[in-house]
Amino acid sequence: MKYRRLGNSGLQVSEISLGSWLTFGQGGYVDRKEAYTIIDRAFDAGINFFDTANIYTRGEAEKLVGEALASRPRSSYVLATKVWGQMGDGPNDRGLSRKHIFEQCEASLSRLKMDYIDLYYCHSYDPNTPVEETLRAMDDLVRQGKVLYVGVSNWTAAQITEAVHLADRKLLDRMVASQPPYNLLRRDIEDELIPVCERYGIGQVVYSPLAQGVLTGKYQSVSEAPAGSRAATERGGQTIKRYLTDENLEKISAMSRLAEEHGMTMTQLALAWTLRQPNVASAIIGASRPEQLEENASASGLALTKDVLETIGRILGGTA
Asked: Which CATH class is domain 3-213+268-303?
């Protein structure tokens, strides 16, 4: 496993990180025993970066991740969680107000059974709360030692620019991480987000690098999902719909042949392509089986040649 600095911080994170969206906790695809096994295998593979959020199965994912990490030295891993989503029925049970951030940080620490969070994300932008209020609340958590680093998820380049300038003017703690979706089939962050983040020393921790499993090459048809796959479930089918198209499957078929020619699986090719970006510190994978995790982790350190990248660009219909 290779490690990269998270933005301009001194924090070293594994190129492949393990997430818990849709997989861990009550209602997830993975039962508790298997989740423990997957996290153990992650450590064996050199993964030190784990991602969750309060909103994932309403706190159940945090509980499971905390339990699975409990036997490990706290210094041996980097843990990220998030705040913003709806966690109750009241008007203040969501968003990025000072009240909600403080209450949810305490709730997350309680569920995780930890004293601090390594990386705390604002899970989405909150147009109903002044950015300064949000930044001051996060800065206070850092000063209190409950949070070590601050990040944002699903924020635009303009929103990040506003926050960075405000933090600098007010001498508040700067964000070091951005968490957007990014993969071979969804590349929009290359236009504005990555250049802005490079300018301000913010690293990307990307999610859906395998396009919800579509980029593994296991889907051969839009209408016939393999038994046991995410697309075969009602919930999973909704999340995967944007990627599962005939046009995309044709591109993936061509890229799968390219991967095979170069001694890689389609999964390894897709992850190595994502990690070719120097601004990407880590790619979050969501394994439902230990074997998946091991294959994904093996993509760390794989370098794609110029010829392979050019071929991928032609397949996608642009530069890669």
From this structure: alpha beta
